[in-house]
Design goal:
This protein is 9% helix and 40% strand. The protein is mostly beta strands. It has one domain (31-473): Pectate Lyase C-like (3 Solenoid), CATH 2.160.20. Strand 1, helix 2 and strand 2 form a beta-alpha-beta unit. The longest helix has 25 residues, at 2-26.
């Protein structure tokens, strides 16, 4: 009996020691500087808090060799803060990190990631990141504030101000990819890659030419509760730079589209608010994968003044968007296929919805058209542009949102600034066929010659130039 009691006591003591060790291993550690923080970025199973305050990363720091992380020699990528560990939590509540915009130039002709995660199951929360300097302090190559690789990581409660690119103030008028009239040095805000990574309740102030939130090589990414705010500018104001020696003036305003920049349009100075790509590279468990984006989910996000609100046309698998709002964007939503549930947008500067390609199929959307956020400057003249087939699309909205002269258009010419004079014909003049359109607004519906087999139920007037379309005029309840 005594032996049994002794064994029990030894067992209880061992359990207590194990529990104490476990608590100690996971108890929060507070560090008081970035240099103290750096060693913990490589560790597993740590809970680290950076003491509240304002911290800086400067060109002088780079010169001292304080941030020498190079992730991949082949890709020539330098990372300031590289999170390599697993199952760790990093609490930045009350912390602001100011990063000099000229830091992006300090690494020569290399791309710079300010913060990158390559471990798994990590949580980073409540950090304020500010690019400190001029919007014209462009990286020598390109820069990104945040890159999420690895698996099952979460960034939550961040506030990011992105600055520093070239050229700035023209959107994509003078190029965006391989072909450019003006050579570009881009700076994007947040790149999501990896497996099941989650960006939550974060705000991005985007004053840079580049995407805000975009996905490459991401499977099951989740973007939730985020706010994106960019800037827009009239093409008339760009043309007013004539004779000033600005970058646009130096090329006589000849756009990458092959014609002189037209007046009458509004362009975002950035790129997409939230976008998915069909290619990319990611790192998971130390291995590199080349793949597209699949199964993206976007919930309860607000996007303002970007080239597009939510564009997921290049993703595969299940595409799901719910509760999102696009304000003052050149285009609200483009999913290609998938579902946009309980979303809303204004058509102040462009359509609330636009098909990306003629083979867009089975797009199910319920979009409320909001009153204009600013005076209308919608050069396309479209409330929405619909091509493709198999859709079920519903537009809602009050008469307060109606602007005379705008229309919901099915097929035909988009009248998009990038597609004038026959440019990029594969992205324009679509057929729209065999889908259902419910127009619960008084906006007119224009069924072009390229429309056929469209079933339309509309409060607004319908102009039918197509074939085999079925139109019903009806006062329809706007209740869902």
């Amino acid at each position: 009996m005594k032996r049994i009691i002794l064994i029990k006591k030894v067992g209880q003591l061992a359990l207590c020691l194990f529990l104490l060790t476990s608590v100690a291993a996971y108890s929060q550690i507070t560090v008081n500087s970035l240099s103290e923080l750096l060693p913990y970025l490589e560790k597993d199973n740590v809970d680290v808090k950076l003491a509240p305050g304002i911290y800086s990363i400067t060109v002088a720091d780079v010169a001292k060799g304080l941030y020498k992380q190079e992730l991949n020699i082949k890709s020539k990528t330098h990372i300031l803060l590289l999170f390599k560990g697993n199952n760790s939590t990093y609490d930045f509540t009350g912390v602001t990190i100011n990063i000099e915009t000229k830091v992006h130039q300090a690494y020569g002709n290399n791309q710079v990631h300010e913060l990158q995660i390559i471990g798994n199951h990590n949580v980073l929360k409540n950090l304020t990141m500010v690019d400190n300097g001029s919007v014209y302090d462009a990286p020598n190559r390109r820069a990104t504030n945040i890159v999420m690789d690895g698996a099952h990581n979460r960034i939550e409660g961040f506030h990011v101000t992105t600055k520093g690119s070239f050229p700035y103030g023209y959107g994509d008028a003078f190029g965006k990819g391989g072909n450019t009239v003006i050579k570009h040095q881009k700076h994007s805000a947040c790149l999501i890659r990896g497996e099941s990574n989650h960006l939550k309740n974060s705000t991005f102030i985007h004053k840079s030419y580049g995407h805000c939130i975009f996905m490459q090589g991401a499977n099951n990414p989740l973007i939730e509760g985020c706010v994106v705010e960019g800037e827009v500018r009239k093409t008339d104001d760009m043309l007013a730079e004539k004779g000033t020696g600005s970058p646009a003036d130096k090329v006589d305003f000849l756009t990458v589209w092959g014609y002189t920049l037209p007046a009458g349009y509004m362009l975002s100075t950035g790129e997409a608010g939230i976008r998915a790509y069909n290619g990319g590279e990611t790192i998971i468990d130390g291995k590199t994968y080349n793949r597209g984006t699949s199964n993206p989910t976007v919930l309860n996000c607000t996007i303002k003044y970007m080239r597009t609100g939510v564009t997921l046309a290049h993703a595969t698998g299940k595409i799901y968007v719910e509760g999102c709002v696009a304000i003052g964007c050149e285009n609200g939503f483009s999913l290609g296929t998938g579902n946009a549930v309980n979303c809303s947008a204004d058509c102040t500067y462009g359509p609330v919805y636009a098909s990306t390609y003629e083979n867009d199929k089975n797009y199910n959307a319920d979009i409320t058209i909001l009153p204009a956020s600013h005076p209308y400057y919608n050069g396309s003249g479209n409330v929405a542009y619909i091509g493709g087939s198999g859709h079920h699309i519903t537009f809602r909205g009050t008469d307060e949102a109606i602007k005379e002269g705008l229309k919901i258009k099915v097929g035909g010419d988009k009248n998009n600034i990038r597609l004038l004079n026959g440019n990029l014909p594969n992205q324009n003049d679509f057929k729209g066929f065999s889908f259902e359109l419910n127009n619960f607004t008084n906006y007119p519906v224009y069924l072009s010659e390229k429309s056929s087999g469209i079933k339309v139920e509309s409060k607004g007037k319908v102009i039918d130039l197509g074939s085999s379309n079925h139109v019903t005029y009806k006062v329809i309840s706007t209740k869902k």
